[in-house]
Amino acid sequence: MKPFLGVDRTNDKKNEEMNGIELAVAKTPAATVDALNNAGNAILETQKKANLPWYLRALRWILLLVGFLCIRLGLEGVGDIATFAVIGGVSFIGSWLITRYGGKRAEKIMSTDEATVNSRNLDELAESIYRDFGVPEGAPEIDILSFAYKMKNGEMKVVSGATSLTPYLNYNYRMFIKDDNLVVADRECKFELPLSMIRSLEQEKCRVTIPIWTKDEEPNSEKYKEYKLTVDNNELVSMKYRLRLCFYANGEEWAMYLPYYEKATIEMLTRMTAVEV
Questions:
Q1: Angle at 195 between CA 193 and CA 199, to 5 degrees
Q2: Can you give 115-182 as a three-state secondary structure string?
Q3: How far apart are the first and last CA of the chain?
């Protein structure tokens, strides 16, 4: 099966082209995509300004390290406990003050007129695209996995870059049913998958880690409790399963891979029950 939104690096390790874009029934005009990217870049620049300067971030971690070191040395009785307690306390307070300053600084920058206008422009552009694609208001949002892979002896092997923390990316799409089609749309492309061409919905055991959490509720919320998601120190979200929606298109068999936490949504949309394989 050909992975939808997968990047085939079997013969070209530098390939970045995603599978499945050729299945799109509609695409956003290039000028609109450029405007969308410009609005997104403007928000990123504002977010960079909101970050603490590197020297304050470094000082915060140094103070934390000193604080914990003082606690350890004090407990081990290496020196005067009172002295370690004072130094450790001052270090922790200093780290907390830097964190508090950073939060207020970020809040002030992100609430400026420039940041508000950039955010509104991005939202308005995105909503206009969804309207043009005929996406109904309130259509479910669902993440689709993208990853690079190589084929060997007929088997697909997910591969990762040298500097990436995870080989998976999760892209947010809106999905809905119209005229017996599963319609999948983001800000650049719209796809229509006939329900009659969907072969199966499968759940396979495979550890998946995603870099971005796109949902309003937290991974440890009651809504996602059944999926037993874990969050590491880098705020990467991991799960023990992934979903695979198998369908036919253009004379080929495809597989759309989804994070495990999208199980309830994709089952509702396709009226299928995920079968563990």
A1: 95
A2: HHHHHHHHHHHHHHHHHHCCCCCCCCEEEEEEEEEEEECCEEEEECCCCCCCCEEEEEEEEEEECCEE
A3: 15
Task: For residue 43, give the amino acid letter.
Answer: I
Contact between residue 211 and residue 166 where contact means Cβ atoms under 8 Å apart: yes
**Residues 15/244/171/176 CA torsion (nearest 10 deg):** 130
Global pTM reads: 0.75
Task: Determine contact, residues 6/19, Cβ cutoff 8 Å.
Answer: yes
Report the amino acid identity of residue 16: E
**Bridging pattern class, strands 198-210 and 275-276:** parallel
Provide the token pair at 187. 């800000």
Can you tell me the distance from the alpha carbon of 47 to that of 26, in angstroms, rounded to the nearest whole number? Answer: 32
pLDDT digit string, tens, across residues 47-87: 677 777 888 888 988 998 988 888 888 877 777 778 888 88
CA 95 → CA 51, 57, 275, distances in Å?
A: 16, 9, 50
pLDDT digits over 203-261, tens only?
999 999 999 999 999 999 999 999 999 998 888 999 999 999 999 999 999 999 999 99
- Radius of gyration in angstroms for the set of CA atoms belonging to the chain, rounded to a whole number: 24
CB atoms within 10 A of CB 201: 22
